[in-house]
Amino acid sequence: MKPRIPTLIAAVAAAAAVLSLTACAPAGRAVGDTQDSMPAVAHDSVHITDATVGFVGSEDPAADKLAINAISDSGMNVFYASLAGQTSPKSDTTGKSTDDAANTTGGTAAESDSEPSVTVDSAAVTAQQAVDDFVARAVKLVVISGINVTDANSQGWDEALTNARNAGIPVALLNPVALPENDLLYAATLAVNDRDAEATPISDVALTIIRDEPHDRTIAVTTNTGN
Question: Which spans does this entry mark as compositional bias, Low complexity (predicted)?
Answer without folding.
Answer: 100-110
